[in-house]
Amino acid sequence: MLNKYLVSALILAVAVLSPAAAQDLDAGKAKAQLCAPCHGADGNSVAPIFPNLAGQNWRYIYMQLKDFKEGRRSNPVMTPMAEPLSKSEMIDVANYFAAQTAKPSAFKVDEAKAKLGQAKADENLCAMCHLGGFKGQNEIPRVAGQQYDYVVQQLKNFKARIRTNDAGNMTSVAQSLTETDIENLGHYITSLR
User: Fold this and answer.
1) Res 193: pLDDT
2) What is the pLDDT at residue 8?
3) Tens digit of pLDDT for each residue in 43-61?
4) Alpha-helical runs (H) found in the chain
5) For 10-16, what is the mean pLDDT?
6) pLDDT of 105 strictly over 60
7) Cβ atoms within 10 A of the Cβ of 41, count?
8) Are the beta carbons of 154 and 141 closer than 8 angstroms?
9) How confident is the model at residue 16 (pLDDT cuts 50, 70, 90)?
10) d(C-alpha 186, C-alpha 172), whole Å
11) DSSP per residue, 145-185
12) C-alpha angle with apex 143: 32 to 136, nearest 5 degrees?
């Protein structure tokens, strides 16, 4: 008898603690078709200025959609796309893209610049938040293999304080970066797989 209760409690705990696992990928795929013109049907961006969402942490995608919806992040395309989404729709879309496989970037990485970017990333302890291999965690994005143009633009936006939905962490780090540092970091991050 005790085993039945223990098993039931464990199943309930897993369901409550793992919201990503309980989501409907088919519903996410259907809603994600609105995202396809920029982010690709499978989350692999169709243009270097748009981020890849394939393989991104579901929690990060969800938080960004929520920030666009609630005005903590602003973009003339993304803000109106996120505003009508419900919480469950944002979670479904986030889980759909997280479940997709990221494809390698077509950007031609300059190995010398990537090496300098790696040194700058080490100096700034980027892996403390983005983790080893820059795979991200929870609200910290996976940036490994991200689009070069997108990485560079976001670092510039953090430096200029145009993008501020980061609790100040990236804004603070970006203040110490030069234009050359940003370029080198872009090469390094894009080179990661």
Assistant:
1) 85
2) 45
3) 999 999 999 999 999 999 9
4) 2-17, 25-32, 36-39, 58-70, 78-82, 87-98, 111-123, 127-130, 148-159, 169-175, 179-191
5) 42
6) yes
7) 14
8) no
9) very low
10) 18
11) T--HHHHHHHHHHHHTTS--TTTTHHHHHHHT--HHHHHHH
12) 90
**What is 23-98's CATH number?**
1.10.760.10
Burial of 79 (0-12, 13-18, 19+ CB in 10 A): middle
- Domain 111-191 matching CATH 1.10.760.10: the answer reads yes
Whether 90 and 20 have beta carbons less than 8 Å apart is answered as no
How far is residue 139 from each of residues 2, 8, 157, measured CA to CA in Å?
38, 30, 18
Structure tokens at 181: 């540092």
Give the integer Cα–Cα distance in Å for 155 and 150. 9
Distance, in Å, from the CA atom of 99 to the CA atom of 33, rounded to the nearest integer, reads 15
pLDDT digits (tens, 9 = 90+) for 77-88: 999 999 999 999
Query: Any idea which residue has 């872009």 for tokens?
Result: 186
The DSSP output letter for 86 is -
Q: For the CA atoms of the chain, what is the radius of gyration? A: 18
How is residue 108 annotated by DSSP? -
The pair of three-digit structure tokens given for residue 168, joined into one six-digit string: 């100040």
The total of other beta-carbon atoms located within 10 Å of residue 40's CB is 20
Alpha-carbon span 172 to 12, nearest angstrom? 40
Q: Give SS3 for 137.
A: strand
Residues of each domain in the chain carrying CATH 1.10.760.10: 23-98, 111-191
